[in-house]
Every structure is written in structure tokens, then in C-alpha cells.
């Protein structure tokens, strides 16, 4: 390329989300291109909820532009990520292309099919007066507790795919036998179609939550499965961007007067009452379901077929900037967090101090205690009214709500007085009213395997610190 004088270059009158600027990173010690939106990082995106009201709907406060631009500021969407954590952005409107226009393959040959963000940012949750605030920003919010969120991602289908040949957890779209889902066998009973019974192209299940973590870690440093803090970040981003804690509220394609999203993403794959008879509670939809929406926000319908070709269930696939089924299909087993049952039946929650080290869920003395959940007289479901965000745990702390108030998500507590519990989230296709991003099922040990339990591949090239920072005003 021929050299040009700087004063001969064009002066642009507008800035687009994809524009970059040349500069030097002091931390990296080299030159490169920065997203232009990093230069304009003042303020923060924030919603608040009145603690005296049970409504799930939040109020936009502060910098409205920041809320509107938050997805592009942090690069929310889908990427192909290799084992060394190099990532390439997929086209926001077609995931079978890169943002550059080159062809992208989602079969694992070009990296894992992941959903996340390309830019570190900060999250802060606080109570002031009678309001609960949730905020995100490219810079720490002064005088508040801030959690630094590193560049990270999780499986774009919100479940795990197993490479049966190499014993590694994956996130990819393939019908090759090497990646057979379920328990790695063809299902032999049920009314499901041959395609579903084959489990080719479906999520892996029938492994314990801690086993998914080990299979994810087989990819190398900075890999795992179901990391709790990524799940909590997903919830907070949803609450801020969509403006409601009830993710199952009806989808509304129209924006409000400020150009902000309003409403949830619908019921998701919920209320499939014939699931057991269909395929004994194995995955209902293939990992590819919803890929046609690319980085969109909305709902895509998938026909769940019987053996005779008729439709057993029309499954609405909620998509949040490319993340498929963030709730309501399979249980999501969470790692790097553990619930330890106390002698009175309550839960004590501990989180790992790092996502880069080998994790042993039983060594709570090496973890950070982040809070408790009260015991119940009898095992059963209630509805979450308040969450504990210490260490970004995202665990329920109060359960006095309903299926349409506060978080509108279910909380299941058992009455055991000892043992470890891997928190399960998301909910499942059988019972829709308990599903959601805040859903908590506290009855499974880390080793418990089930047909409708999976855990998505997770990664970060950096690390997450569950201890917040506070910067001066």
C-alpha cells in the first residue's frame, strides 16, 4: 500500500459501531486497532427496581444512550473461538459467515461456536434508598462495588456438545456420530422422530455437572463448563437491556420511545407435558435451532416431530443477541459455585476465587463464602423475589414472589442437612412457570447425571475475580 500524508486522508462525519482507531496498548506493548466506541465510555447503562413493588419491569435511569448502545459497546454476539482463545466475530445477520464476509463453519473445524463479548467491562449492583440498581459500564462506576468482567463466552446453544473421540466438551453444530448427544446412544423408546432418537446434532446430557467442567477443561487453560459468573452476567445484561426481570414475558419487537427493548423473550421451550413419552426427557431441539436469527433478539419456532411426521410440539426458541435457549430447554449445571447444606437444612454458597485453576467443589476452605439461602420445612418450589449478587453468585436470597412478580422464576429447596449441591439454572421444557435466568434447583449433587441436564462450554483468556473493587469519585 502506497504511503499517504495524514492530512490527505478523509475526515469522516459519522461514527459507526464497527469503526476502529489505530493506537498502542500499553499493557500489551504493541499497536493495534481499538473499537471506536471505547473512546466514548462516559456514564453507564442502568435500570432500577423499586424494592416496595413486585413488578418485574425496571426503570431506565442515567445515560439512556448507554443502555441503547451497550450490546455494541461490549460486542455482544457470537464468535468462533479457538483453544488459544483467539476469536473471530460472526456476521450479526448470518452465522455462516464471518463479519468480514468470509465463510464460517460452525462444525468445530474453525473454532467453537460461542456467545459472549469481546471487550472487558464492569458490572455493579447496589441498593440506594428504596431502589435496586443494576448497571454495566466500560469503566468502574465510582463509589460502587464493581466486578470486572473479562472477555469471555459460553456455548451459543446454552448446552454442552461432547466430542466422544477426544473426550472434550464442545460447542458446535454437527450431525457426525463423533458428537452424538444425550448419553451417546440411539434412543430406543418414545414417540419421537428418528432424527431426534438418533441424538445426532443434540446436546450431551447424562453427565454430572462437575464432569462437564472436567470435559470442558480438557480443551486447555481457561476452559470449563457452566461457570456461574457468566450465567449471572447474562442475567444482569438481560435485565438492563430488555428492561424486565421476567425473561418469560411476551416478546415485543417494538422499541419504546427511547429506542430501548421492552418485554421478555416469551415462554421458551416450556410446557412440553408429553416430554417423557416423547423421548424420556432427553434434549427436545437440536443445537442448531435458532441459528437462523444469528445475533438477533427474538423468537424462532422449531417443529418437534413425532415418528409419524406430525408435530408433537412447536418449540419457541428464545434468542438473546445470538444466545439460543438461555432458559427453558435443559437444566444448566453451574460450576465454580457450590451449595453446601448446613445442619439446619439451609444452603451456604461458595465460589471459586479463580476460573483458571483446577476446581474441587469439596474444598470450600479454598473458596469465597458469598451468602446463604434459608431452609424450608418441606422440599418444594417457591418463587424468587430477591437475588444475592455477592461475588456475582446470582443465587436466590428471598423467595416470596409468584410466577409473574419480581424475577418470576422458581426456586427448589430440599431438606437435606448435609452434602453438596450444584446449583442448576435455566429451567426445563416440562414446566414453564419455574423457568428463567434466575431459576434455581438445589437438589442435585455435583455428580448427579440426568437426561435433561447439560452444561455449556465456557472460556476466558483472562480471569474473573469474585472480589469487587471500589474506585473514588
Label this structure with key terms.
single chain; 473 residues; mainly beta; seven-stranded antiparallel β-sheet; six-stranded mixed β-sheet; 5 helices; 31 strands; 10% helix
Description:
The protein is mainly β and 473 residues long. Among the domains are: 155-326, no CATH class; 332-426 and 435-446, no CATH class. The chain is built from five helices and 31 strands.
Structural class estimated from helices and strands: mainly beta
Task: Assign a percent range to the helix content.
Answer: under 10%
Strand order of the largest sheet: 7-6-5-8-12-31-15
On the 0 to 100 scale, the average pLDDT is 94
Q: Please give the largest β-sheet.
A: 7 strands, antiparallel
Q: How much of the polypeptide forms β-strand, as a percent range? A: 25-35%
**What overall geometry do the principal axes of the alpha carbons give?**
globular
The first-to-last residue Cα distance is 46 Å
Radius of gyration: 22 Å
The count of strands amounts to: 31
Number of helices: 5
Low-confidence stretches: 13-17
Give a brief description.
This protein has 473 residues and is mostly beta strands. The chain has five helices and 31 strands.
Record the SSE blueprint.
Blueprint: E1 20-25, E2 30-35, E3 45-50, E4 59-62, H1 64-74, E5 77-81, E6 87-91, E7 94-98, E8 112-117, E9 121-128, E10 131-137, E11 147-149, E12 152-155, E13 161-163, E14 168-170, H2 194-198, H3 209-217, E15 223-225, H4 228-242, H5 275-279, E16 297-305, E17 311-320, E18 323-324, E19 331-333, E20 337-341, E21 347-351, E22 368-373, E23 380-383, E24 386-388, E25 395-398, E26 410-413, E27 420-421, E28 424-426, E29 436-442, E30 453-454, E31 457-459
Parallel strand pairs: 19-30, 26-29
Antiparallel strand pairs: 1-2, 3-4, 3-10, 5-6, 5-8, 6-7, 8-12, 9-10, 9-11, 12-31, 13-14, 15-31, 16-17, 17-18, 19-28, 20-21, 20-27, 21-22, 23-26, 24-25, 28-29
Amino acid at each position: 500500500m502506497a504511503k499517504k500524508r495524514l492530512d490527505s486522508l478523509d475526515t469522516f462525519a459519522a461514527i459507526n459501531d464497527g469503526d476502529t482507531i489505530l493506537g498502542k496498548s500499553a499493557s500489551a506493548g504493541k499497536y493495534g486497532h481499538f473499537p471506536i466506541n471505547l473512546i466514548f465510555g462516559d456514564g453507564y447503562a442502568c435500570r432500577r427496581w423499586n424494592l416496595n413493588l413486585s413488578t418485574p419491569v425496571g426503570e431506565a435511569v442515567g445515560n439512556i444512550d448507554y443502555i441503547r448502545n451497550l450490546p455494541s459497546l461490549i460486542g455482544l454476539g457470537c464468535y468462533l473461538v479457538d483453544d488459544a482463545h483467539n476469536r473471530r466475530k460472526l456476521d450479526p445477520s448470518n452465522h455462516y459467515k464471518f463479519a468480514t464476509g468470509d465463510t464460517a463453519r460452525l462444525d468445530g473445524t474453525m473454532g467453537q461456536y460461542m456467545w459472549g463479548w469481546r471487550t472487558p467491562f464492569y458490572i455493579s449492583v447496589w441498593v440506594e434508598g428504596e431502589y435496586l440498581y443494576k448497571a454495566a459500564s466500560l469503566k468502574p462506576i465510582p463509589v460502587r462495588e464493581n466486578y470486572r468482567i473479562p472477555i469471555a463466552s459460553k456455548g451459543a446453544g446454552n448446552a454442552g456438545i461432547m466430542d466422544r473421540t477426544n473426550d472434550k466438551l464442545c460447542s458446535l453444530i454437527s450431525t457426525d456420530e463423533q458428537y452424538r448427544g444425550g448419553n451417546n446412544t440411539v434412543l430406543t423408546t418414545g414417540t419421537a422422530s428418528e432424527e431426534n432418537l438418533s441424538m445426532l446434532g443434540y446436546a450431551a446430557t447424562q453427565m454430572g455437572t462437575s464432569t462437564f467442567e472436567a470435559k470442558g477443561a480438557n480443551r486447555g487453560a481457561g476452559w470449563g463448563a457452566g461457570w456461574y459468573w457468566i450465567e449471572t452476567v447474562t442475567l444482569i445484561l438481560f435485565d438492563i437491556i430488555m428492561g424486565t426481570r421476567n425473561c418469560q414475558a411476551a416478546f415485543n419487537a417494538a422499541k419504546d420511545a427511547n429506542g430501548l427493548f421492552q418485554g421478555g423473550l416469551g415462554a421458551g421451550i416450556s410446557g412440553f407435558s408429553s416430554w417423557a413419552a416423547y423421548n424420556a426427557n432427553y434434549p427436545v431441539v437440536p443445537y442448531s435451532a435458532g441459528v437462523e436469527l444469528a445475533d438477533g433478539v427474538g423468537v424462532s419456532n422449531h417443529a418437534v416431530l413425532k415418528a409419524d411426521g406430525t408435530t408433537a410440539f412447536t418449540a419457541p426458541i428464545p434468542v438473546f443477541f445470538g444466545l439460543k435457549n438461555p432458559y427453558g430447554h435443559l437444566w444448566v449445571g453451574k460450576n465454580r459455585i457450590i451449595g453446601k447444606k448446613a445442619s439446619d437444612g439451609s444452603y451456604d454458597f461458595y465460589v471459586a476465587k479463580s476460573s483458571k485453576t483446577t476446581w474441587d467443589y469439596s474444598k470450600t476452605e479454598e473458596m469465597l463464602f458469598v451468602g446463604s439461602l434459608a431452609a424450608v420445612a418441606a422440599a418444594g418450589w417457591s418463587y424468587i423475589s430477591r437475588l444475592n449478587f455477592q461475588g456475582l453468585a446470582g443465587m436466590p436470597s428471598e423467595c416470596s414472589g409468584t410466577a409473574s412478580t419480581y424475577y418470576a422464576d422458581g426456586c427448589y429447596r430440599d431438606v437435606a442437612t448435609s452434602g453438596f449441591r450444584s446449583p442448576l439454572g435455566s429451567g426445563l421444557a416440562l414446566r414453564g412457570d419455574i423457568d428463567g435466568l434466575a431459576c434455581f434447583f438445589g437438589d442435585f449433587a455435583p455428580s448427579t447425571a440426568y437426561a435433561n441436564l447439560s452444561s455449556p462450554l465456557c472460556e476466558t483468556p483472562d480471569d474473573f475475580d469474585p472480589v469487587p473493587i471500589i474506585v473514588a469519585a
